[in-house]
Every structure is written in C-alpha cells, then in structure tokens.
C-alpha cells in the first residue's frame, strides 16, 4: 500500500485478490484522481453476470483495520454492502463500461469521469446545491434507489486496446461531512478461490491532494513540527557547548559526543522538514533529501 501524494504502481503477473492501493486523509475540497492506464486480465469465460473486478473506496474509521482483513477470504467485497463502503467501481469487460455504485448518504462526495484539469487553482465544486444527475460516458444509467441506500449510478466508459483496458475518474470532497481517512483498494475476485488464480497486469496512477498541498491531513503539521524540533535540538546543542567551554577541566570526550549527537539530530530533522515541504508542494519526495535524512538519522 501507499500513503497519499502522487504515485504510480505497476504490477506484472499479480495473483492477489485484494490490493490496498493507498490511504489518505482528505479535507474539504480535497481530490482523489485515479488513472488506470493498463489492466490486462487472464480471465476465462465464466457464467458470472456481475463484474468481479474493480475498485472500492471506503472511509477508514479511527483505530479500525481494513474491512477485508477480517472477512472470509472467499467473499468478494464487490458483492457486499458494508456500512464502511462508500463507492464501488465495477469493471464490466463485456459491455466495456465501469458502473459506479455509491452507498449511504454522501451528498457532497462528487465522483466524475476523467482527471481534473491541470490548473493551480483548487478543484471546483458544482455550484448547484441540488443533486445533479451524473453524465453518462459510454453507457446507460442505473436505477435510482431510495434515500439511505444506493445512490444514482454513474456509468463510465471503459477503453479497450490490445487486450488491455483503461479508464480514469476523480473524486472531490465537497463538505466537512465527507472529510476523513479514505482507503482505495483494487479487487480481482476471480482470484479469491485458492488454486484458480489467474495472473493479471495493472498500471495505475493515483494522485491525492488537499487544498494546502499533497500531504495527507495527518501529515500537514509535520513540516512545521520537524522544523521546530530541529531548532530545539540546535539550541540545546549550542547551550551544551557553552557549558563545556565554561568547564574545560571537567570535560571528557563523551561530553563532546553528546554535543555532536544534538547537532546531528538537528540536521536530520531539518532535512526531514524540507523533504515534507517538497512533498507538499510537488507531490513526491526529493531522493537526495531523503538519503541525507537517513544518513544523519
């Protein structure tokens, strides 16, 4: 699994039925973009009518574990309606469409096809306060369910090229009620039966962003926190050196090593803080800063 920001995942010959892609904390106006550029399935003809391949988006409660970790490994999460489940993206390779099913009350959780335009401004939300009927891209809409049940279905187009499939979508957090920690998983329920696994290839790009940058909600304060801690260790090192200089007759090598430790820790935290700054602004860490942090850590 991954933890937020911009990342690209490529798996070849994968046989797992469940893959945890990422977990990220969103604030209002935060966005999640998923671009599945390649999905190659080694499936045989089956009698299954419902799609058994797709993504699930769930809200992770504080202190909880992923919902599929305690379930029967033979059960398919794409067939279940869990209380933690927010949305399913069911990939139908026969009809070349992706059916989006929303569960529960998410009035301000906006799911749309395609990626957000490359712009420095924040993701724009629909201006209307009323629920807008989703646009259909390459398919027909599903039936509308009652309040509190399944929301109106959205159908996305599924591209097909050289025995591989591709599509993209984005999610925008529209209000404080939808804020929280979200987990995105990929499921291939055809591989849930032991001994009948079929290898598949997948390449996916995931980009999460909050209004203040690419850091998850829990990581946003870390830049300032590590900077303050670096300053504290630097101040303590200077204070310790001043004491050693005033008492030169009772100073041993171990005392100078203690001072060096404080300065080294200060430099390590400084590199860590700068690394988080670049992650927040660019969406990915600077390898050189990460290496320097682990060298001085």
TrEMBL record:
<feature type="region of interest" description="Disordered">
    <location>
        <begin position="114"/>
        <end position="148"/>
    </location>
</feature>
<protein>
    <recommendedName>
        <fullName>GOST seven transmembrane domain-containing protein</fullName>
    </recommendedName>
</protein>
<keyword id="KW-0472">Membrane</keyword>
<keyword id="KW-0732">Signal</keyword>
<dbReference type="GO" id="GO:0005794">
    <property type="term" value="C:Golgi apparatus"/>
</dbReference>
<dbReference type="InterPro" id="IPR053937">
    <property type="entry name" value="GOST_TM"/>
</dbReference>
<dbReference type="InterPro" id="IPR009637">
    <property type="entry name" value="GPR107/GPR108-like"/>
</dbReference>
<feature type="compositionally biased region" description="Gly residues">
    <location>
        <begin position="139"/>
        <end position="148"/>
    </location>
</feature>
<keyword id="KW-0812">Transmembrane</keyword>
<keyword id="KW-1133">Transmembrane helix</keyword>
<feature type="domain" description="GOST seven transmembrane">
    <location>
        <begin position="221"/>
        <end position="297"/>
    </location>
</feature>
<feature type="transmembrane region" description="Helical">
    <location>
        <begin position="225"/>
        <end position="244"/>
    </location>
</feature>
<feature type="compositionally biased region" description="Basic and acidic residues">
    <location>
        <begin position="124"/>
        <end position="134"/>
    </location>
</feature>
<dbReference type="GO" id="GO:0016020">
    <property type="term" value="C:membrane"/>
</dbReference>
<dbReference type="Pfam" id="PF06814">
    <property type="entry name" value="GOST_TM"/>
</dbReference>
<feature type="transmembrane region" description="Helical">
    <location>
        <begin position="256"/>
        <end position="279"/>
    </location>
</feature>
């Amino acid at each position: 699994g991954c933890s937020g920001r911009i990342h690209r995942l490529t798996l070849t010959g994968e046989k797992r039925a469940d893959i945890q892609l990422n977990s990220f904390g969103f604030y209002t106006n935060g966005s999640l973009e998923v671009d599945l550029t390649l999905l190659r399935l080694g499936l045989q003809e089956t009698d299954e009518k419902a799609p058994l391949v797709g993504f699930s988006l769930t809200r992770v409660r504080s202190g909880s574990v992923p919902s599929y970790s305690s379930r029967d490994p033979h059960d398919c999460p794409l067939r279940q309606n869990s209380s933690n489940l927010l949305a399913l993206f069911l990939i139908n390779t026969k009809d070349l469409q992706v059916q989006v099913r929303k569960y529960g009350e998410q009035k301000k959780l906006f799911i749309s096809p395609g990626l957000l335009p490359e712009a420095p401004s924040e993701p724009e939300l629909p201006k209307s306060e009323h629920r807008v009927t989703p646009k259909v891209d390459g398919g027909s809409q599903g039936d509308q369910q009652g309040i509190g049940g399944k929301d109106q279905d959205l159908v996305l187009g599924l591209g097909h090229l050289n025995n591989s499939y591709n599509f993209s979508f984005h999610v925008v957090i529209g209000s404080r009620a939808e804020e929280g920690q979200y987990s995105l998983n990929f499921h291939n329920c055809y591989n849930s039966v032991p001994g009948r696994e079929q290898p598949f290839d997948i390449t996916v790009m995931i980009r999460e962003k909050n209004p203040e940058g690419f850091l998850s909600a829990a990581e946003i304060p870390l830049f300032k926190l590590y900077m303050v801690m670096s300053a504290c260790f630097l101040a303590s090192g200077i204070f310790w050196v001043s004491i050693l200089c005033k008492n030169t007759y009772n100073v041993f090598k171990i005392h100078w090593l203690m001072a060096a430790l404080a300065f080294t820790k200060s430099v390590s935290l400084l590199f860590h803080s700068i690394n988080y700054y670049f992650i927040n602004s660019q969406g990915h860490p600077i390898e050189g800063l990460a290496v320097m942090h682990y060298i001085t850590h």
